[in-house]
Amino acid sequence: MQALKKLLFLSLCILLPFALAAPAEAARQQPVHTLNYFQSYATKDAWRVEIGVNASDVKYEIRQKTLLRKEIVIDFDDTVRGELKQHIAQKSDVVKDIRIDETPDHHTELHIALQPDFGEVEVRVTAIDADRRAHLPFRLAFDIYPKPAEPEAPSVDGVKGHTIVLDAGHGGSDTGAVGPSGVTEASVTLAVTQDLQRILEASGARTAMTRDTDVDVYGPNATDGQELQARVDVGERTSGAEVFLSIHCNAFSNANANGMETYYCAGSSRAARLATLLNEELSRAGGRRNRGVKTANFYVMRHSSMPASLVELAFVTNPAEEALLSDPDYQQQLAMALAIGLSRYFTER
Length: 349
What we know:
Layout (H helix, E strand, L loop, with lengths): L1 H28 L3 E10 L4 E7 L6 E6 L5 E7 L1 E2 L6 E3 L5 E8 L4 E8 L6 E8 L9 E9 L16 E6 L16 H18 L3 E4 L14 H14 L5 E8 L9 E5 L4 H18 L3 E6 L3 H4 L5 E8 L3 H7 L2 H20 L2
Parallel strand pairs: 1-5, 11-12, 11-13, 13-16, 14-15
Antiparallel strand pairs: 1-2, 2-10, 3-4, 4-8, 6-7, 7-8, 9-10, 14-16
């Protein structure tokens, strides 16, 4: 008898925690949000889908699918469909139909099927407060817009068929110089180099970038020599590369220092001509003081087997020039000036 009591006691000790946890687990899994309103209609620029929810802290995720059919999926966490219809037809040039599915783990997925022949879209979300007078709940409005076409990059003549290596100075662990309001040389050089790449490729040129994001070219913790040689190596490995152009911003302890300048290695007439043409176009387009065409022994120029030039666009440490260098329109102006300089290099003999 004593042994039986002991066995019962041990069984209770084992089972009781599970019995107590079961209600808590069930409560945790109980969905707390209900979709309670649906409306869709055309606005001036978009097709709007409004979903009402009984609480404003609902979490959701938006993704687009294009594999089997083009659709936008809005996944609401911890929700049930409520009394909303599962399938809702749409009279829209943008949206074909809408389906609302519940998943076993208390997610509700809003599948917005797009018209097959409609182009790319983007979704913008607006939260709309409840309107008690109109008997409207809190709503999330999903506006589906046609995605604007990427503007065509401007182009220049004379570079088609040529191969150009573009080196955006600094990057990754090396910000380069930093302006008084925090603009970094690395961010400016990358932006201008990317603009220049778009112009050149739209013009039929082939480009190789030493970096196209904010990274170290060699890798973290590299020595200066390793990092600079990694940039040179990009050019040396690029088949048919004809020009190496390194883009930088200048800096000085005196904030009044200003202007642009270009460099080449002494002894190369082709590099001198390249630096001169780039200098003329930057001076014309940028409107800054022209500090001239200069010789220097910079590593990337000295170790490149092709004509190479390094340009200093302006002083990021000068407040006025820092503001210009961070302006996308001015960056585009500088990129176009460099593209024209390269065009002249290949066409003017």
